[in-house]
Amino acid sequence: MGLLPSFAFGNHNYGEALSKSFLFYEAQRSGYLPHDQRVQWRGNSGLMDGKASGVDLVGGYYDAGDNVKFGLPMAFTVTMMSWSIIEYGRQMGESGELSNAMDAVKWGADYLLKAHPEPDVLYGEVGDGNTDHYCWQRPEDMTTSRAAYRIDPSRPGSDLAGETAAAMAAASIVFRNSNPAYARELLTHAYQLFEFADKYRGKYDSSITVAQKYYRSVSGYADELLWAAAWLYKASNKQYYLNYLGENGDALGGTGWSMTEFGWDVKYAGVQTLAAKFLMQGNAGTHAPVFEKYQEKAENFMCACLGKGNQNIHKSPGGLIFRQRWNNMQFVTSASFLATVYSDYLASARKTLKCSSGSVLPSELLLFAKSQVDYLLGDNPRATSYMVGYGNNYPRQVHHRGSSIVSVKVDPTFVSCRGGYATWFSRKANDPNLLTGAIVGGPDAYDNFADQRDNYEQTEPATYNNAPLIGVLARLHGGQNEYSQLLPVAIPQPKPDAEQKLTPDPAFDIAIEQRETSSWVHKGKTYYRYSAIVTNKSAKTLKNLKLSVSQLYGSLWGLTKYGDSYVFPAWCNSLLAGKNLEFVYIHSVNSPAVVSVSSYTLV
């Protein structure tokens, strides 16, 4: 039996929830809206942003229900959307949402590029929470301050610069194939920002003090330096960044902190999850002892989510993990994402999770993530969906300026700063504009929730609530498609300096082993799941592999179809000596497909 057995996914339409998530990002757009804007009740806004400072800061996202552009949560949103695509872009493509996902990343990344006009200058906020929150206006009507705030060598902000470097590095991977020039631009900015963050150290909210009341950097900047290094290694494959993780893991807390939360402020659990992945891929090298400590802390987080660790995460009576009253759902979606990817990493490495209560199958982590998503979508004591527009019973009085005030396209009459509070905020009626896809703050520790506009702790949405969830939704939606369970780990490989073509001798160079891992009956028909391991037995790097697969009566995952052949998947272009790649297929015949090598190159 395989480590990740098949199990039925529930009745929720994860594909619909995924589609709606991207509509929420369109509703949060600032700047000039594009011609293909689908959320039609929004208009252009923030068109003078940055002008007073002599820089173009038009664009980007409003973070939540207000009209401020906060750099730290916006960058984290871009990082997590990118990570979702990197892991589960194929499933997004199958559901027709990959282009919308990439558009959402690019809208944020374009703004981050504008916000970084010089190597050691980064704009971290436009607008100011105090004046903004005094007013209740549509973004199209804003009369509040649009001052821009920056960090530089005299006013550093390593956490903000580090997170922005991570976002650009992650986004560069997303666009590596479809827009290589844009990907290179993002990576260049990421290199500069990391150097800026590391060289001029300090907390960003000591420099941009107006952010303290809203996005205070409680954890400091050490976690963001490691987080940025991890993403730069993943994006560039440069040993410098792997060494940084290995040499600074102890000093910067990455190997010491066992976390029970992951979010826009505290990144340690994310760093530890990525470092564990690098270790399981065999990339840690001489730093393996340090990376084993990262992995131990990553597994502590996973065990805490499952309630099987030494320090577990609190759960409500209905089973939702609970961290804090104000926007608790951000921690639900981010923990669910880490559990989902770690489940797949473990399954790919054929390993189990080691908790204090014993060994845990990877499938338990995926089931945990599914339980959290199902709760969010309505499987909870209140039978309430906490995604606006999904299901029949969802929040109708969202704490969100644009959603709660009549669209400027329906009634262009100016809504004044305080007039908005008097006329629209205090209305005990449904929002005139549906904020489709928004994930609100959610219920309290006892599963209670009040759908009231002034209940901002529970009814305000945020961009960083959805960003990790899109990956989990794509994974669960893919899981509904013909029992897909296993995704190979992405393996970035260095580009060789020269290639040498050899006369193929597949019997000597390549081994292919197949085995049946599970079977089940669905609607009276028996399905069989097979795992196939392709191993490079040569002493060189295997590239340009083409496989022929015949007598296959079903679907195959983990390879890319290329004409009549199958080639390496998009996330892996070679196999080092001694390494292997797994692909899986499910079909209705109790015998393996015929897999043979058509051609390959050794380098």
UniProtKB/TrEMBL annotation:
Keywords: Carbohydrate metabolism, Cellulose degradation, Glycoprotein, Glycosidase, Hydrolase, Polysaccharide degradation, Secreted, Signal
A Gene Ontology BP annotation from the UniProt entry: cellulose catabolic process
Primary localization: secreted
UniProt keyword annotation of Hydrolase present: yes
Glycoprotein found in the keyword field: yes
GO CC annotations, alphabetized: extracellular region
Enzyme Commission no: 3.2.1.4
Carbohydrate binding domain span: 510-590
Compartments where located: Secreted
Entry GO MF terms: carbohydrate binding; cellulase activity
Alphabetical list of Gene3D superfamilies matching this protein: 1.50.10.10
Family: Belongs to the glycosyl hydrolase 9 (cellulase E) family.
Protein name (Swiss-Prot/TrEMBL): Endoglucanase
Organism the protein comes from: Anisodus acutangulus
